[in-house]
Amino acid sequence: MVSSHQSDFDCDVAIIGGGPAGSTLASIILTHRPDTRITILEKETFPRDHVGESQLPAIGAILDEMGCWDKVERAGFPLKVGATYRWGRSSELWDFDFIDPEIVEAVERPTPYEGPRVHTAFQVDRAIYDEILLDHAAELGANVRQATQVREVLRDGDRIESLELDDGSSVRARWYVDASGHVGLLRRRMGVETRPETNLQNIAFWDYWENAEWAVEIGVGATRVQVLSQPAGWIWFIPIGPTRTSIGYILPSSHFKTLRKSPTEVYHETIAADPRVAALTRNATARGMVEATKDWSFTAERGHGENWFLVGESLGFADPILAAGMSLAHTGARELGYTLMELLDGAKPEDEEWLKDSISTQQLRRVRQHIKFADFWYAANGQFTDLQEHCRVIAEESGMKMKPDAAWRWLAQGGFTTDSGVHATAGSFDPGTLKQVQWMLTDRVSGWQVNKYNVYKLNLRNAERRRLAIYHEGKVQRRECLVRGDNILPLAGWYGVLVDLIEIDGRVDRIFQSIAKNYGGESGVASPQQLCMQALEVLLTDSWVIGRLDKKVPRLTVQSSDEETLFVHWNRDECPEERTSEST
To answer: Do 11 and 37 meet the contact criterion of CB atoms below 8 Å apart?
Structure first.
């Protein structure tokens, strides 16, 4: 449906920024609502290099939805099956895999978005990747204007009237979106303040290298990124093409100031001093242009106004230790696309405010959750020998005393039950994986709460029923949810299934039998029974259910130990330092 007064505007949606957030937003809308008039204003001319190359598997589904998967797959970017860490309680390497690497060994490329590829991610050269996405948006019908700078934002209170461009022209739209990244052009012009969500203030130095070795090659072009702690920070090592690798060094800005050296000196000294990275770059050549940026986590005080939105890094930024940046941008852009389609189709005034509030709240909660993860990651790293006081302060200010059970509760608050609204996941972590990661980081694992009980009842005291937005198949679905304080319980997905089953019969054996009967066998890498028990663990953690032990009722046990699992385990790859020694 197109408004009868659309002729009053140059376009329906004006997007400032043609990076992944802006191009994804345009493509999602045009995929589901092809007659929408969209203008993308990009100040640079593509292709151009951009840092932030490591993705998470959730992006694949979004690329597939907007019809861009095949184009990205044909570009031949390395596949990411997970990451190798030197981080936490030991100097030994350990892996976090999204999928069994042996399955990926058999994958031929190019491959459709199905089967094992649902659980892999890309490591992308942003100069190539971003241009693919922007060109795709143009092919779908977006009016893409590169080398176009927004000079002025004309406003009337909290409403944007038009955008004045550097060539003297202007753009008037029904809705405006700031996808300009850290620049936050609309955010700044509309007077939206930002706040730091942590005292962690890092600075990043990076360069691109040709012909660096991969730490491991799995099947056809698959590998793991390397995340390697240093006494004063950490190194990323991300192959982004057959011969090109992004290598960066992140450290606290306060520590950098004490070194009294240039970014180039600090960067190359750190690379040369790390045996693993030095071995991988032994025959490689750096581009020779070390870039730097401050890397401070923040969120905007609000995500929308009367006729405008923030998306991607203009709305908030989480430390890149968990490679969340591009996932946050793509996911937020997809959900904002759904929101704008409903607004363009003429939502009622009361529904309009709910739609706007829902998308802003969801994006901000997601960014803050990843910031919490980053704080935990840093605070748990015993390898930061030069920064022990720094990590202690992070832990204390995050309310975490490094006890596994307390850390689990802290991480679970507001994260698992709101990230997808369907599964107990936050980022790439489900409850079981997070417990194993905790073991790698702290040498202790928090046990499963569900193992203590076998009969459950709902605890909905002081909970308020509200509507929750679920973004599915081109529509913003209205689902009921329960809200108590900062905790949200969606009555959808596995949470909704559990609530229904517990209301009928709270015995865990009968819950499990009902799941097996009604939801069949495997569902991706986890069975419905596993997904449901993970959701039950979260509901226990957030006190949405109360458990008790009845000796007459059978018990079910979720496995959790201090041993390796398929997806979190000690690294078994050939050591590149040894390969170097053998070759010489």
So the answer is: yes
